[in-house]
Amino acid sequence: MVILLAYMSIITISCDRMYYRDGRHSLITIENNSKIHIFVYGSENYPDTTINYPCPTWFDFRVVESGASGRVVESLLGSWWEERFDLKNLQYLSVFIFEKTFLEPHILDENFIVTETMAIQRYDLTLEDLNSLNWTVPYPPDERMKNMKMYPPYGK
């Protein structure tokens, strides 16, 4: 039993190091504090907030169940978000939140087009925003996010 617990601790620590090392992050956690299940999609195309589906596939949309957290917005090709902000000169990372029950019936419909207007929330986050949230973004937005760029705006 002790050996099993030690092994599980090592695995957990190793997995966390894959996503965070030397102050750099490869994943953003979405914390779903709502009563609905959500799909999450991240885009580096700001100020263009359109979703170019079918370029993003359904595999690009991650599910976060109600009351759960999920590491869902991944940096590409094993890179770190901090590097992507720097190398691509990103000002904002757009994170789109969709109601799962709205999109799920269309998963197998290759003619269905996902658009930004279908999102129930869009965050446009800076590197400083992500750091201030400790790389865990809540949905719905909380008080810490009241001055961050989002649509609809905080409290609306």
Task: Kindly describe this structure.
The termini are far apart. The chain is 22% helix and 28% strand. The longest helix has 18 residues, at 2-19. The protein is globular and about 40 Å long. It has helices spanning 2-19, 81-87, 100-103, 127-132; strands at 20-21, 24-25, 27-32, 38-43, 62-64, 69-74, 93-99, 121-125, 136-139, 149-151. It is of the alpha+beta class. The protein has one domain (23-151). β1 (20-21) and β2 form a beta hairpin. The strands form three sheets. It has a five-stranded antiparallel sheet with strand order 5-4-7-8-10. It has a three-stranded mixed sheet with strand order 6-3-9, with no helix packed on it.
Any descriptors?
156 residues, 22% helix, alpha+beta, 5-stranded antiparallel sheet, 3-stranded mixed sheet, single chain, disordered N terminus, 28% strand, globular
The rough form would be described as globular
How many domain units? 1
* Termini gap: 51 Å
Mean pLDDT: 80
Strand content: 25-35%
The helix tally amounts to 4
Strand arrangement, major sheet:
5-4-7-8-10
Largest sheet: 5 strands, antiparallel
The portion of residues assigned to helices is 10-25%
Low-confidence stretches: 2-18
- SS class: alpha+beta
What value does the Rg take, in angstroms?
16 Å
**Total beta-strand segments:** 10
H-E string: HEEEEEEHEHEHEE
